[in-house]
Amino acid sequence: MAKNQSPQFHTEIVEMLLNLYTETTGLPVALYLCSTQEFIWSKPRQFSPLCSSLHANDAVAINDECYKDHVKRCQEAKGTPEMCHLGLWNLALPIKINGQLIGTLISGQRRSKDPTHDSLSRRTLSKYLDTIDPEKARMTMMLFERTHAVDKKEFNEKLLYNLTRVQGHIFTLLQKSTEHESLRRSKIQNLAHEFLLPIQSIVADAENLYNEVSETELKEMANDVLQEMRKLAVIAENMRGSLIETKEQKYHFTKHSLYKCLMVPIDLYQKEANKKGVVIKSPILKDHKKMPILDMSFDYLQRAITNIIHNAVKYSYSSGPNTERYIGIVGEYVENFYCITISNYGLGILPHEIASGKIFEDGYRGELSADRSRTGSGMGLPEVKKIIDRHNGKIEIFSEPKGGPYKTTVKIYLPI
User: Fold this and answer.
1) Nearest partner of 8 among 182, 169, 198, 157, judged by Cα
2) Do residues 129 and 140 lie in contact, with contact meaning Cβ atoms separated by under 8 Å?
């Protein structure tokens, strides 16, 4: 399951299970979801006096250090008692589906009556107390002493037994959700594959027609059909790529010239640019011998560049004040990379969308494009980033207003 996808399940049912556990045991409990790196906490929290003091300013927020400690414990869940960074003991039970860690239940945050555990807790807490002022250290120690201590019998009968039961119920919920999601993804992948087969057949027929006919008008019609079907093929490949984990995609790297990787996408959207009165300026293509030969997965890299040029054409303004009606494509050597820069003037991207990385989230479309008639799936840029990452390259995007339209620049760095 991709990192940015979480199993879809009924949060209300999970919260009900967690609340029942807390009411039964008097202990706090949370479900950590690995996919979103978020906690679902029981309500009320039932934190220990020591934990509650750390949350005094905001009862909902988790102290940063506690949060990091909880996340680490959940990601490395062992299913045995473990001590937190302040000397309290808890239990983290992993929830795995097909061997993959999906989530973790964590509960406890109490002292232990076991002499060995208690001694270890006090040594750990003392290290923390040495880093804070004496008055705060005294108060913290007092809160530690007020925290309820559990013995082995109470731990096994109350915490472990009940937490295991909750673990079983949530496992069932997550398993059903994962199976449903897997079935949905499988159906869409099959649909994308089925969609591609006739497209590829039409592309082959259009190529044959283009090569065989002599009449100029028929040749132009055949070429139009060919180009439109190639565009559909890119969309279908984007759809399929968005559903498959990067590690599952088969990349075959061989040496190719970057020239063709650029020429095919430019040729594909040249007519659409012409209709908008937008000129594609690409001085680097005038002397293709200067363009580098790189190790690349040719089809994937060409698709990445196609997506960027498609966006540049689609979001360019065809009219309006202060509008530059051209798309610039330049290339240069930058340290150990060859950098391709593609710029256009038109609809832009807001700074926070770039800074937060939202533009690379699958299915996300920019705020400025929300009320436009331009079509889009939000799958193009995420695919571009996945492909460039697999080439050990990097991508940078800039977008700034230029007296009306935005100048949007995409830089792709490919290792040489």
Assistant:
1) 182
2) yes
Single-letter amino acid, residue 106: I
Instruction: List the beta bridge partners of residue 410.
Output: 342, 397
Torsion of CA 348, 352, 356, 360, to 10 degrees: -10
Q: Which amino acid is at 249?
A: Q
> 18: burial class by Cβ within 10 Å (0-12, 13-18, 19+)?
buried
Question: Residue 321, Cα to own-chain centre: how many angstroms?
Answer: 37
pLDDT tens track for 168-194? 888 887 777 766 666 666 656 665 665
Q: Which pLDDT value is given to residue 220?
A: 76
Alpha-carbon span 416 to 405, nearest angstrom: 34
Contact 30, 92 (CB under 8 A): no
- pTM of this prediction? 0.52
Is 406 exposed, middle or buried (CB count within 10 Å of its CB: 0-12, 13-18, 19+)? buried
**Under 8 Å CB-to-CB from 98, ≥6 apart: which residues?**
none
CB-based burial label for 201 (10 Å; 0-12, 13-18, 19+): exposed
